[in-house]
Design brief:
The complex is a heterodimer.
Chain A lengths: L2 H13 L7 H14 L4 H15 L12 E2 L9 E12 L6 E9 L2 E8 L12 E12 L2 E6 L4 E5 L9 E2 L7 E13 L6 E9 L2 E8 L12 E12 L2 E5 L4 E5 L9 E10 L4 E5 L14 E2 L3 E2 L4 E11 L4 E6 L1 H8 L3 H9 L5 H12 L3 E9 L2 E9 L4 H12 L3
Parallel strand pairs in A: 1-2, 4-6, 8-9, 11-13, 20-22
Antiparallel strand pairs in A: 2-3, 2-5, 3-4, 5-6, 5-7, 9-10, 9-12, 10-11, 12-13, 12-14, 15-19, 15-21, 16-19, 17-18, 19-20, 21-22
Chain B lengths: L18 E3 L2 H5 L4 E3 L8 E4 L5 E2 L1 E14 L5 E8 L2 E8 L3 H9 L4 E13 L5 E12 L2 H20 L5 H10 L3 H13 L4
Parallel strand pairs in B: 1-5, 7-9
Antiparallel strand pairs in B: 2-3, 3-4, 5-6, 5-8, 6-7, 8-9
Helix pairs in contact in B: 3-5
Chain lengths: 406, 195
């Protein structure tokens, strides 16, 4: 590609809009970028074209009209032309965005936004459109299609059947995904506009989900299996979650075996205060831990508490830490200290409940454990836990690894 | 100590720094230390020669010696041996739990320590790495053996990715890390265990 060719192309585009193009000026601008600043010629073409478009107040010049691409193959940084069906619309998060949602073709699906400044007529859910010169960028780790003022939208008279690829939870990646899963936990919404949040699971694992308040949006029912089409898969701090606000969730009359929870293995590096023997509020359904003076944050002084054992700790594998909450049964199994015995110690020792805390801490801190449990917010609620066992096979493997170049 | 609720919140963006597994020989050779930002509360790190930053370490070894020093400012010094060398441990009145735990353990004993490594430079230029203990508990021989495996694996993992991220490139530049030296160290440490 040489400069003259590019100059011709740019001036041709400007002339096609009924303006006269100053070729000398275009060439000078290009030369400056390419020769003086070492900008790649295609990028220079784009820049100059945009500059000229602004200068002549032409809105839809755009770069060379992009070739038609399959949605499943889009990567950030491209100008593309795609054809797809609007499978979901969600309410735009800011006034700068006119519409947001998901469009799909047979190869896949992608999130899109129509910027308010594009001035485009509104898209209808369920219809097919041809988008000429849209831009793909990255949002929260996944590709997103931007419909801007340079994009030409044409309604298409087709309705090819679309069958989204349903994958296992463990196979979901950032972007848009479809899966079949059972709702296994409901959590307290963390935001007033949040309709529902909780955990979905299948044979391959579990994933957090959120549904935001929106007209006609319904909650999922606990312990029901759903086919979920076109859910938004978000990534935050390396973990995935599903936003079902714009997704289609169809209840299914089947059951699923859910792989229960996370498995973590590492050293117990911290046991927090509040571990060991605790007193719980006796009011029906409350169960909160009481202060030393038997004060419940909700039900005030409760002198007929019941005792319980628990550990709030941190298990650390050397690269990541996990907050764990271990309830009575696994605490008893790991420490060998049963609840009745712990109560007896507390009632007959000058240090009281602290004595139980110290004993449990000294028994568990600094040891290696493997625990299985379910993740709740930032904490793993442990169901079972065992001490890690020394296996000479590991030693053999590591000796081989270390000896490779020794 | 009160009965509940004193756990510093670990959600909400604050992520606890992992405790790195490192043999005494490697820790002793560490020099480079830095803070993430200039703020006072910003965590301090040392850069290990195998290329990872450590704000905290997890050590299991043999407590061979302990000594109580100071009178106004009481603190304990302890030495903990692993197959490659010796860790220097400190616990002062700012670590009352660790201090009282050390007081109750009689050497020699297998112990597990969670703590923060610090680099000290004496006026003569000698450098000492010591670990300020957050906790120290006496453990069994199996835990010590598991730690050697764990630390060997972590060290080999770090050597495998040496030069592949920013911290480990910085380590290569600063320490001129020779991977074969550390592989030999790992091999010798493992060789002390029974197959």
């Amino acid at each position: 590609m040489n400069l003259t060719e590019v100059v011709e192309r740019i001036s041709h585009k400007i002339e096609s809009k009924g303006k006269s193009a100053d070729k000398k000026k275009i060439e000078a601008k290009l030369k400056r970028l390419v020769e003086e600043f070492g900008v790649h010629i295609t990028e220079a073409e784009r820049t100059v074209l945009n500059e000229m478009a602004k200068e002549y107040s032409i809105s839809s010049l755009g770069p060379r009209s992009a070739e038609l691409k399959e949605i499943g193959t889009l990567v950030p940084g491209e100008w593309v032309t795609v054809e797809g069906k609007v499978v979901s619309l969600s309410s735009p998060p800011t006034p700068a965005i006119a519409q947001a949602g998901i469009i799909a073709d047979t190869s896949g699906a992608i999130r899109f936004v129509v910027w308010a400044r594009a001035g485009a007529p509104p898209l209808d859910q369920g219809l097919w459109y041809h988008f000429d010169s849209a831009v793909v960028d990255e949002y929260k780790g996944a590709p997103k299609l931007n419909i801007h003022s340079g994009t030409t939208i044409t309604r298409m008279e087709q309705d090819a059947p679309l069958i989204p690829a349903v994958v296992k939870i463990a196979e979901l990646g950032p972007g848009v995904g479809s899966t079949r899963a059972k709702m296994i936990q409901e959590w307290e919404p963390a935001h007033p506009r949040m309709l529902q949040t909780g955990l979905l699971g299948d044979e391959s694992g579990t994933i957090k989900f959120t549904i935001w308040e929106e007209n006609g949006k319904e909650k999922l029912t606990l312990n029901t299996v759903y086919s979920i089409y076109y859910a938004q898969v978000d990534e935050f701090n390396g973990r995935l979650s599903l936003n079902l606000t714009g997704a289609i969730s169809v209840p299914e009359d089947i059951d699923l075996q859910v792989r229960s929870g996370e498995m973590i293995s590492g050293a117990m590096v911290h046991i927090a205060l509040g571990s060991g023997l605790v007193k719980r509020c006796p009011v029906n359904g409350c169960n909160r831990v009481l202060s030393r003076q038997n004060y419940c944050p909700v039900h005030e002084i409760q002198n007929t508490f019941r005792y319980d054992l628990r550990i709030k700790g941190v298990i650390d594998d050397g690269t990541k830490t996990h907050n764990v909450l271990i309830p009575r049964e696994p605490v008893e199994a790991l420490s060998g200290l049963i609840l009745d015995k712990a109560v007896e110690i507390a009632e007959n020792n000058p240090l009281g409940m602290d004595e139980v805390f110290f004993r449990i801490r000294d028994l568990l801190l600094g040891r290696y454990y493997t625990c299985r449990g379910s993740e709740m917010e930032d904490r793993i609620l442990v169901k079972e836990c065992s001490k890690r066992i020394y296996d000479p096979k590991d030693l053999a493997t590591l000796l081989n690894r270390a000896g490779e170049v020794v | 100590m009160n009965g509940q609720g004193s756990l510093p919140r670990q959600g909400g963006g604050f992520e606890r720094e992992p405790a790195r597994r490192v043999f005494a020989q490697e820790l002793r050779e560490s020099r480079l230390h830095f803070r993430e930002t200039m703020e006072e509360k910003s965590p301090g790190f040392i850069l290990l020669p195998t290329g990872v930053r450590a704000n905290r370490v997890f050590i299991v070894g043999t407590l061979t010696e302990k000594e109580r020093r100071g009178d106004q400012n009481l603190f304990y010094h302890a030495r903990i041996a692993d197959p490659t060398g010796t860790f220097f441990i400190m616990a002062g009145s700012y670590q009352p739990d660790a201090m009282q735990q050390i007081a109750r353990i009689e050497p020699p004993a297998f112990v597990a320590v969670v703590g923060k490594p610090n680099v000290y430079e004496s006026p003569s230029g000698a450098v000492l790495i010591s670990v300020r203990a957050e906790s120290i508990t006496s453990v069994d021989a199996e835990t010590r053996n598991l730690w050697i495996l764990d630390t060997a694996r972590s060290t080999l993992d770090r050597l495998d990715t040496l030069g592949k991220d920013e911290d480990s490139r910085k380590a290569l530049e600063h320490y001129h890390t020779d991977p074969s030296l550390y592989r030999t160290m790992v091999y010798n440490a493992l060789a002390q265990l029974k197959l």
